[in-house]
Design a protein that fits this description.
mainly beta; 11-stranded parallel sheet; 6-stranded parallel sheet; 17 strands; about 0% helix; about 50% strand; globular
Length: about 140
């Protein structure tokens, strides 16, 4: 099995759809490709591709995607068919499931964690700051 590649977005190719800070979406969202949410989402999504909820972002509902990075607040379930990365700034009230899961020190998850491959979630300490834009170091 390949090692868990931190920072799913480091491997994203092509353009992403950004939902800006101060924006609010309500309803059901489906689509393909990479999505980055910096604002608010109330509702459910089913995305074929990676979804990032940035620090300061807020999600209420079910977030379902191929790969997920959470740095903001989620009130609902997070379901990934592949990988999940939970940053130290993340707060999740709901269940979390994925094939591989990495949880940073400081993250809060109030709910069940299900790892589809049977392994325990990986834990890591964030080693790069938001101001740096260097290659990630292995955790």
């Amino acid at each position: 099995m390949k090692p868990f590649k931190r920072r799913i977005n480091d491997s994203v190719k092509g353009p992403a759809t950004f939902i800006a800070k101060g924006s609010k979406l309500t309803g059901k969202l489906t689509g393909e490709g990479a999505y980055v949410f910096c604002g608010e989402m109330e509702g459910d999504c089913d995305i074929q591709g990676p979804v990032t909820l940035a620090e300061g972002g807020h999600w209420t509902g079910t977030l379902r995607a191929t790969e997920v990075v959470i740095a903001g607040i989620v009130e609902g379930d997070v379901i990934a068919t592949k990988r999940v990365e939970i940053a130290g700034s993340a707060r999740i009230v709901g269940s979390l499931s994925g094939h591989s899961i990495a949880v940073a020190e400081g993250a809060v998850i109030e709910g069940e964690i299900k790892v589809a491959n049977g392994d325990e979630p990986q834990r890591y300490q964030e080693k790069r700051s938001a101001e740096r834009s260097q290659e990630p170091s292995a955790a």
